[in-house]
Amino acid sequence: MVSVKSVLCSIASLYVACFSVFVLVDVYARPTNNSAARHDKANANAKDKDDNEIQPPNHVNGLKLEKGGFLNKDFHQEVFLGKEIEEFEEDSEPVKNRKKLISIFEKVDSNVDKKISASEMQRWIMEKTEEHFQQAAKENKMYFKTVDPDGDGQVSWDEYRIKFLVSKGFDEKQVAEKIKNNEELKIDEETQEVLDNLKDRWFQADEHPANHLLNEDEFLAFLHPEHSRGMLTFMVKEIIRDLDQDGDKTLTVSEFISLPVGTVENQEAQDIDDDWVKERRKEFEEVIDGDRDGIVTMDELVEYMDPMNEFSALNEAKQMIAVADENQDHYLELEEILKYSEYFTGSKLMNYAQSVHEEF
Asked: Rounded to an integer, what distance in angstroms lies between the CA atom of residue 98 and that of residue 104?
């Protein structure tokens, strides 16, 4: 006969195990400083497109910083793969991905000397960034038609506001009628805050001479600030506003690496955040702070964020090569890129040495 003591011990053990799992899930599910896996991000972006296709996306491919000033963890893969990033996301077979990666290597190696130089990688990064630009412009045409049903080529803030609220579940006729009659809209606080931010962004996208209407190009800048120097500057201002603690409109390394209050919940979380801080410190000191004076100005952050900045693209190319350049010759060889495939594509290829042997 099983003793009461044995049963109680078993129950206690089960409780401890369940609690441990709960803690681990809590640590790794925190929406703080850690970018989600690219697969999760792709699903989230797809959902954003379905639910809020006329709202600026939280994530923009090819931009180094996310909304709120968080580092884009997938930036290297986005500027290396371009539109082919979706193929690596959908196909997880190592053999197929190896062939794709070898094909990309051959395309980047423009002089066919079996190695990639910084200038070749720079050219490739610019081409892949342009692919993201073209994709955004293509999608924008579709989205603009959504907010411009009469096809006059211009959209007012009220027209956009109606479509936005409809995407949030509001009745279009009721909202349109209330706006026409200048009546108060019963909107929850969170939605109203989003609308206020969008309104600021809307009028910022309205280029001189301002007429409070957005054409297709201005609407593209509204959705994708990387397409407009003015909107990119506006985005940088928002990032500095979020991170600047002393109000001097510049960023110090301590401000850039500071953690949001209450994000460190236990030791496991602390270890994760320590890595996040180290990464941001390195990015600040080695990349963003161009003159190495310990202070990042708005101009420096704009240059850092500009996806079509050739100097930044060259620096990025050198960084990407340095990560995998095991023989320290300042070039990237096929063996090196296959070994560090996870950095370049997000996919880890097995038996990379055998792959190289088979290729040659």
From this structure: 10
Amino acid (1-letter code) at residue 86: E
Contact 280, 269 (CB under 8 A): no
Q: CA-to-CA distance for 219 and 142, rounded, in angstroms?
A: 11
Cβ–Cβ contacts within 10 Å for residue 227, how many?
A: 21
CB 248 within 8 A of CB 235: no
Tens digits of residue pLDDT in 261-316: 444 444 455 555 678 788 899 999 999 998 999 999 999 999 999 998 999 899 99
Distance separating alpha carbons of residues 66 and 72, to the nearest angstrom: 6
- Residue 285's CB is within 10 A of a number of other CB atoms, namely 14
- List C-alpha distances in Å: 104 to 124, 165, 263, 341: 10, 43, 40, 12
**Peptide linkage before 307 cis (omega within 30 of 0):** no
Please check whether residue 239 is in contact with residue 66, taking contact to mean a CB–CB distance below 8 angstroms: no
Q: At what angle are helices 189-205 and 216-223 packed, to 10 degrees?
A: 130
Contact 249, 295 (CB under 8 A): no
Residue type at position 315: N
d(CA 320, CA 208): 39
**Rounded Cα–Cα distance for residues 59 and 69 (Å):** 11
CB neighbours of 187 closer than 8 A, spacing ≥ 6?
165, 195
pLDDT, tens digit, 9 for 90 and up, residues 70-107: 888 889 999 999 888 877 766 667 888 889 999 999 99
Query: Which residues fall within 8 angstroms of residue 182, CB to CB, at 6 or more apart?
Result: none
Instruction: Note if the pTM is more than 0.85.
Output: no
Show the DSSP H helices in 168-251 as ranges. Answer: 172-180, 189-205, 216-223, 229-243
Hey, what long-range contacts does 23-28 have (CB within 8 A, 24 or more apart)? 23/266, 23/268, 24/268, 26/265, 27/265, 27/266, 27/268, 27/269, 27/272, 28/272
Closest CA to 100 of 316, 319, 347: 347
Provide the 10 A C-beta neighbour count for residue 348. Answer: 13
